[in-house]
UniProtKB/TrEMBL annotation:
It comes from the Bacteria. NCBIfam families: adh_fam_1 (TIGR02817). CDD domains: AL_MDR (cd08252). Homotetramer. This is Zinc-type alcohol dehydrogenase-like protein. GO terms for cellular component: cytoplasm. Keywords: Cytoplasm, Metal-binding, NADP, Oxidoreductase, RNA-binding, Zinc. GO terms for molecular function: oxidoreductase activity; RNA binding; zinc ion binding. It is found in: Cytoplasm.
Length: 337
């Protein structure tokens, strides 16, 4: 089968940074689905791994975590899906990725594809939806569906992949006032379209922007990027007994100053359940089923921004370069081979 992989950590401008290859079609394990891949999206984790995770000498590593496809075969222990089902999912970081014609994935982290979306639109959603859902309702403990609240959430980088869906979840499924950060006209417009009540400029101190909109303190902060750069402003912006949840990788982050306000700090990584085979792993199946239903009922929308065409090395290089630029909006998707 066709796939796209890398052998060495090379700059994305290098012709060999990602290459088209042929590999054997995988075989599903007992709890696995064998999925014929229709569309994928590209995430910052793909860029991080290509840049820093070296495959065994001479062995290709296939990236890609978001996928939409059709179940072709199932393992002996599968109970949630059957051949012919349309599915979407974000996979596992410790298994071969979705940039391939066929892919195997544990059924416990798979959801039914939203019926109202095409494959490209649906491929934009799984990884970011899982991350945003776990961050908002799990780590921060915001009550699901409680539509009356005096509290607010600050989402740092509202126009990114996670920020786009987190803004929608917070606006449509909670009573929080949603404040996103953005700095360009197009990212400000996108954040507002996703549902942000207010947008402030993250090129300036965040606490200054909050004061200007008349909300000097918030109960929750989602640190999606540059959390270390914004640490002092986040500390000032959080109300006593507030909470910060972050997903990025700051080189250093000192939480000791957060003690005086009794603030809680949480890390969110949606790959943790599959990495450690946690007992609650099937929770990701349940989240994706809920997201699918919310999309089909019109509560949530796809965050697809650009379709880069077929899944091949050349188009994936373009997508990686776009993510490395730091100027992305929403999600980049590829489809077909």
């Amino acid at each position: 089968m066709k796939a796209v992989a890398y052998y060495n950590n090379l700059p994305i401008g290098d012709a060999k940074s990602l290459v088209d290859i042929e590999v054997d079609k995988p075989t599903p394990g007992p709890r696995d689905l064998l999925v014929q891949v229709q569309a994928v999206s590209v995430n910052p984790v793909d860029v991080k791994l290509r840049s820093g995770a070296t495959p065994p000498a001479g062995q290709p590593r296939i990236l890609g975590y978001d996928a939409v496809g059709v179940v072709e075969a199932v393992g002996a222990g599968v109970t949630l899906f059957k051949p012919g089902d349309e599915v979407f999912y974000a996979g596992a970081i410790d298994r071969p990725g979705t940039n391939a014609q066929y892919h195997v994935v544990d059924e416990r982290v798979v959801g039914a594809k939203p019926r109202s979306l095409n494959a490209q639109q649906a491929a934009a959603l799984p990884l970011t939806s899982l991350t945003a859902w776990e961050l908002l309702f799990g780590k921060l403990g915001v009550p699901f569906g409680r539509m009356i609240s005096d509290d607010a959430i600050l989402i740092v980088n509202g126009a990114g992949g996670v920020g786009s869906i987190l803004t929608q979840l917070a606006r449509r499924l909670t009573g929080l006032t949603v404040i996103a950060t953005a700095s360009r006209p197009e990212t400000i417009a996108w954040s507002k379209a996703m549902g942000a009540h207010h947008v402030i400029d993250h090129r300036r101190p965040l606490n200054e922007g909050l004061k200007e909109i008349g909300i000097p303190q918030v109960r929750y902060v989602a640190g999606l990027t540059a959390t270390d750069k914004h640490q002092a402003a986040i500390l000032e912006a959080l109300a006593p007994h507030g909470a910060l949840a972050l997903i990025d990788d700051p080189q250093a982050f000192d939480i000791v100053p957060f003690k005086r306000k009794s603030l809680s700090v949480h890390w969110e990584l949606m790959f943790t359940p599959t990495l450690y085979q946690t007992p609650d792993m099937v929770g990701q199946h349940k989240i994706l089923m809920e997201v699918s239903a919310l999309v089909d009922s019109g509560v949530l929308r796809s965050t697809l921004q650009e379709d880069y065409g077929p899944i091949n090395a050349e188009n994936l290089k373009r997508a990686h370069a776009a993510i490395e630029s730091g100027r992305g909006i929403g999600k980049i998707v590829l489809s077909g081979f």
